[in-house]
Specification:
single chain; Ribulose 1,5 Bisphosphate Carboxylase/Oxygenase; four-stranded antiparallel sheet; 2 helices; 6 strands; 28% strand; globular; RuBisCO_ssu_dom; RuBisCO_ssu; Ribulose bisphosphate carboxylase small subunit
């Protein structure tokens, strides 16, 4: 299953040049950039692990790309995403979010249905990756 997550989820994977262009756009808009990673990309899991602190005070995307590549090298079988925050609304608002790495094998999700009283049905998602303990998911 191919996870659709972030701004460019229906495009082919971005090249490093395209990632640099998007980071440059965020920096030109004065949006601080941060890098996050996870091995459990459940749709309701909005909070991923941060790779370092948000990257404030940058003018060029080279520093962000270096951190992206360091995160990719450390976690080669995790999802890695880039986020840019817009602080104009006096609160943390995500202006841009996109994946820069996927694991080589994405096991996907299963849809579960539960029957309730009065023939009421509820649905839930369960990630196949969560059947393995963290750190060992995606063949790590």
């Amino acid at each position: 299953m191919y996870l659709r997550h972030g701004t460019f989820c229906y495009l082919p994977p971005l090249t490093d040049e395209q990632i640099a262009a998007q980071v440059r756009y965020a920096l030109l808009n004065s949006w601080p950039v941060s890098i996050e990673y996870t091995d459990d990309p459940h749709p309701r899991n909005a909070y991923w692990e941060m790779w370092g602190l948000p990257l404030f005070d940058l003018d060029e995307p080279d520093g962000v790309l270096a951190e992206i590549n360091a995160c990719r090298a450390t976690f080669p079988r995790h999802y890695v995403r880039v986020l840019a925050y817009d602080a104009r609304y006096t609160r943390q608002t995500t202006a841009l979010s996109f994946l820069v790495q996927r694991p080589p094998d994405e096991p996907g999700f299963v849809l579960t249905r539960t029957e309730g009283p009065d023939r009421r049905q509820t649905y839930g998602l369960h990630s196949y990756a969560t059947t393995v303990r963290p750190g060992d998911r995606y063949g790590g």
